[in-house]
């Protein structure tokens, strides 16, 4: 089955999926995106993703190209046409095509592009035994809360991680760990408190983050949404990261410093299991 | 004559000029650009622009898609095909097309896109009487020295300026004016010293900036490359901005505060004239 993508109203062969060179997404990174996971052809937390998408668009004053309800129908159709049971949906909206000029064009129709790909879940070994992360200075702009296409700071950090075979780069602003290049970052203190950076302008408030914090609170884990330092991280009892594609992934090493015992901690593994149940409830899939 | 653009090896009708949706320029703003002015079909300071282009690419570890010499030939041909005597050339290089993943793809061919447009020179009135600028917080990332496609911070500032009919937004980091959203910023003190932010990671070192500073020094104007505060700007004797499309443009008002007498100052106008001569020498065009 060949790959099919959706571009501005049409389902097209992926290799023929094109946008205009003056699409402002291409020239200015003037747009936003979302990434959904799906299992058994069912999106995980679709409502939360669409809500964040609407917020990102509103922050950039970009109009919705169609209702989120219509988008959900297009996504379902695209998953069908790609013949996948499990995988990921990447959806991008830019301000649209206009003669190049920094200020917003007066009349412009937003562009909508959707692709479907295979699952990017971490390996069983990674989920069970954890991964290592490195740290990089957080050089990104001050509106990381917008899930925008301005991702150069993120990809440079991720590339540095990839070069040393680390799963992720945690970004450090001053002494504070903000988040990963494409995931949120957490530590568990020796007292058993779960710490993660507050969802302000400095980080992208992950959907998996929201769900995991809710599950933690429900199960009487103390959650502190406050910034933590790199030194705190290195002396933490546990650490982990979350994202739509990584789920709850234990972090056992930060910059070659073993975290806790060097093995995934009990709170991390509890949350991983709770999150797996959360997915099962919505999609019927055991991961 | 219809508009013709260059896309990855082909001269195409502009309305059919397309790139793939998984071009990393579109999904990650993973690329760089240059903008050249031309008069009498001759590029202004082509060598300096190509040098900066090579630096931007090197900083992002993107290969040159072809030699800059070959690019110059393509540009000349494109100007010809568009039948323009004077105007601008926009050239964009992205890392290329690859399945979406933050880290750099292993094997990828950079994308090269070039468009030609009409001149964007300020009006005669603006060049003679000056323009007003507003200020906005500088929320951009820490590598503004790379002329990258990550321009969301720039366009949001420029849009705010456009909404109040200001020519430009000067960006303020703490108390310091770094630069404009798409231009460099200068003041002249009451002592007659020309001040502009040093060309470090916080600003994009403009080609017009380099040329104007060289011309200033040659004509015995004292140049200080140091940061200046917004308060200094507001009490300066003169102010102006430079860019490839604005040349040397007097700034007579900052945030509704008149600068100096409220009219373009003598050093600004001297530099505007010197820059016009610089263009005349290269292209034979009087602007």
Q: Gyration radius of chain A, to the nearest Å? A: 19 Å
Number of helices of chain A: 8
How far is it from the N-terminal to the C-terminal residue of chain A, by CA?
25 Å
The level of helicity of chain A is 25-40%
Provide mean pLDDT of chain A, rounded.
Answer: 97
Question: Given the C-alpha coordinates, what overall shape of chain A results?
Answer: globular
* Percent of sequence in beta strands of chain A: 25-35%
Biggest interface pair, counts = A-B, 51 and 51 residues
Structural class by SSE content of chain A: alpha+beta
The assembly state of the depicted protein chains is homodimer
Description:
- The structure is a homodimer of 287-residue chains.
- By secondary structure, the first copy, chain A, is α+β, with helices and mostly antiparallel strands.
- Chain A is built from 8 helices and 17 strands.
- The first copy, chain A, has helices at 24-28, 46-59, 68-82, 124-129, 152-163, 207-218, 230-234, 266-283, and strands spanning 4-7, 10-13, 18-20, 31-39, 42-43, 87-94, 111-117, 131-137, 168-173, 176-180, 184-188, 194-196, 223-225, 228-229, 238-243, 247-254, 257-258.
- In chain A, strands 8, 9, 10, 11, 12, 13, 14, 15, 16 and 17 form a 10-stranded mixed beta sheet that branches. In chain A, strands 2-1-7-6-4-5 form a 6-stranded antiparallel beta sheet.
- In chain A, strand 16 (247-254) and strand 17 form a beta hairpin.
- The mean pLDDT of chain A is 97.
- Chains A and B meet through strand 3, helix 1, strand 6, strand 7 and helix 5 of A and strand 3, helix 1, strand 6, strand 7 and helix 5 of B.
- Strand 3 of chain A pairs antiparallel with strand 3 of chain B.
